Amino acid sequence: TVPPLKHRLSAFLTGALGTTEFTVRLAGALLAFLALLAVVLTLGRRFGGGVAFLSGLILATTPLFFLHGRSVVGEPGSVLALTLVALGLLESHWQSSPRRVWTLLLSGLVVGFLAKGLSMLLGLFVLVTGVSLIAGDRRASAWVPSMIFGAALALAAAWVLTSPPESFAGQFRFTQRLFTAGPTAYDRNFDWA
To answer: What's residue 189's pLDDT?
Structure first.
């Protein structure tokens, strides 16, 4: 199993709209669109409509972003999580309202966990901590996001790693079980001989 965000969204959309190539790809496209919308709205609020339009146009036409957004196997949930956290860090640097900063940071944390599990939480913790280290800010308030992301990683790891691999929490592990002795009866399908 894999973290549920994109797959459950895709299952919901195919159930609601029917099973077509369009509906299978729609989940990734919606997540990518949310990342694009977050960038455009944040930069538009700070710098105006012209900068927002150009940044959105550049992001939408970047080949990797475009491919992840329309691919069935892409990582638009991870892109959305990274975008939200990066925008939260920018808003923090711009000294925006704490509500705006924490909404972006915590929504990125949740989306990242649902999109890629513990590996994304680890990546976001490294990103937030790295920004604090590079900025060299010695104020305690500058390290609060890093401490919260670290605590979230520790709590999620304690929950996920102590749960059975087949449980709901098992889908958020760093890695899935290896097929060292072949797939288990649970994992077998008609392709395995």
So the answer is: 58
Closest CA to 81 of 125, 41, 40: 125
From the list 64, 65, 73, the residue with the least C-alpha distance to 2 is 73
Of 126, 121, 101, 100, the residue nearest 111 (C-alpha): 121
CA nearest to 1, candidates 167, 122, 179, 190: 167
* pLDDT tens sequence across 21-36: 888 889 889 999 999 9
Query: How far apart are alpha carbons 38 and 19 in whole angstroms?
Result: 29
Instruction: List, for residues 37-95, the tens digit of each pLDDT value.
Output: 999 999 999 999 999 999 999 999 998 888 877 776 778 899 999 999 999 999 999 99
Q: Are 42 and 101 in contact (CB under 8 A)?
A: no
